[in-house]
Amino acid sequence: MSYFLEILKKRNNLLYSFGWLCLIGTFICAILALTTHVQVLGINAFIKPMKFFVSITLFCWTMAWYTGYLPPTRNVAIYSWVVVVAMTIELIIITAQATLGKLSHFNVSSPVDGMLFSLMGIAITVLTGWTAYIGYLFFRIHNNPLAASYLWAIRLGILLFVVFAFEGFIMATRLSHTVGGPDGGAGWPITNWSTQFGDLRIAHFFGMHALQLIPLFGYYIARRPAQVFLFTVLYIGAVTFLLLEALGGRPVLSGL
User: Fold this and answer.
1) How many other CB atoms sit within 10 Å of the CB of residue 125?
2) What end-to-end distance do the CA atoms of the chain give, in Å?
3) The model's pTM
4) Cα-based distances in Å from 79 to 11, 85, 139, 223
5) Buried b vs exposed e over 103-122: b needs ≥16 C-beta within 10 Å?
6) CA 62, CA 15: separation in Å to the nearest integer?
7) pLDDT tens track for 46-72
8) Which terminus of the chain is more exposed, N or C, with fewer CB under 10 A?
């Protein structure tokens, strides 16, 4: 593990360091979740920011690893700062709203809440757009020592991340992540994905984490690009199924 972290730091020190800050935020939110009783939609208010801190830690370290394969250009440096600024905006708003016992997403109940929600939308749109550009740079790589299967897995992983990050706008336009019922109510352990209605967060989650899962397949399992393409097609099919089930108001699993 220490070797991995040492390499990660050399590849992109900014995202490596910011990932550590997010990990510290994870533990702080975990402590607050255990020691406070503020609730949002029936669960402890700090569960949601804790999950975002975890997810953003993983995202930062993933992109730190991938950008290490690219030439250290000004565009890559700018991208790293875009990640830090955009994710800082997200985390501050999500945590602050949780502290107040308020929803951070889909909350337009007051002009301030609506402005904060819009600001998060702008930040994530800019970040996703820049991430798409990083993916484009990987499509321009030639004569690279990376195995072809791994390189294609990174390209496709970033592409799917971008597509399913923008899929989040379906939720934003609906001002809800639940289809067929109100947000809240019975849900899966930890994730709180609905066990009664369709939940758009499931496809959003698995779609974006193609960023890690497809490259892991390409590095450890695939031996040829064709295997990566087949895995990606199956992955897209599975995530699309999750999305269609949610849009139809059907829970993926019930009775948990």
Assistant:
1) 15
2) 34
3) 0.92
4) 14, 10, 17, 31
5) bbbebeeeeebeebbeebee
6) 9
7) 999 999 999 999 999 999 999 999 988
8) N
